[in-house]
Protein: tetrahydrofolate synthase
Amino acid sequence: MDHSTPILERLLGLHPKEIDLSLGRMQRLLDALGNPERHLPPVIHVAGTNGKGSTTAFMRAMLEADGKRVHVYTSPHLVRFHERIRLGREGGGQIVDDGVLCEALRTVEQINAGEPITFFEISTAVAMQLFSSHPADILLLEVGLGGRLDATNVIDAPLASVITSVSLDHERFLGNRIEEIAFEKAGILKRGAPGVIAPQEDAVRAVIERQAARVGAPLKIGGQDWMAHEEHGRLVYQDEDGLLDLPKPRLVGHHQFTNAGTAIAALRAAGIWPGTEATESGLLNVSWPARMQRVHAGEIMNHVPEGAEIWLDGGHNPGAGTVISAAMAELGDKVDRPLYLVAGMLTTKDPVGFFHAFEGLAHYVLTVPIHASDAGRTPEELADLVSQAGLIAEPKPDLYAALDRVSELSAGDVPPRILICGSLYLAGDVLALNGTPPQ
Structure:
């Protein structure tokens, strides 16, 4: 067990709610810490429903290919909390060391002195304390939830604010209408700082444009001011500064062309684009676990037929379902295999909306519990909801039982393609069980 684990467990008990959107508690603690948020490297702030992690990963890969030291803050983690904080170093950043994290946790815990604060707020304060005390060229700061009242939204003057694809998710906290959610995401826009937004549906774009005009943030809009698309198996990016003919992104799925384009647009708007060579290297070497990740080795491979493919994706809302199903369909167009889903999902998510995108594509769904969260649906409940989306579903007690069932169902057939999906918590369970945690 990491030495930081007992401290993290204590911090979980400082507030009765896991999520309580507010900036007051965060600002109080930052003031007591000497305002580390004012002493950070230049910041690119990233919000969005889907794609913000991949966009951040592309930016990191491109900047590191140019020799830059890049701090990165993302959430949630998959296996260890430490994954949320990556400290930039020459030769490439590294996930924060347990000893370094422990020291920062103790300092912040002591200064907070037991005052009520959510886990995400105090862990964000810890991250800012670390980012301010370790030199780097840039900080890529990912929003946790929403934007306007998110604990990361204490940055006054980012180099750029980025909003990736916006869709329905976390309605209990952000609103039931897409316009309400867009308003929360647009809360990260700051006066004078360029805002870069991925292509959005009209209602979302209109809300973001109004907020940008209100605060005085110049916008670079995907599909209007910049464009990124696939052409002959390559990424073509174009804006007012010219056209780039680039290699296909390493991350799988057509949506990754948009995420890569958003990353390029953000770096160009921020004035730190590293040039064509570093961009190409970043596209080819980027890594972002549990986002259309192909699993090639590990314990779980012993529970599937020889020649089977296993893919892992933590997407969990209807927008993610749409892009993930499209990615699986694209794989099917290249090499046709029967597709089986192994799925787990939290009670706060919309299974019918997510799985509807797989109707007619997936042969069978095996539902499993999520061990890393108390908010997971039972396999039986999830199977009923998946059936409502028009798919055949069967509950199983654990991942191995589900994979064994796929082996039975696909016996004598072409080796199957298996997608493990529905939750980042499930993805974390799988990577931990498989002995292949993020590095």
Residues 318-334 form the longest helix (17 residues).
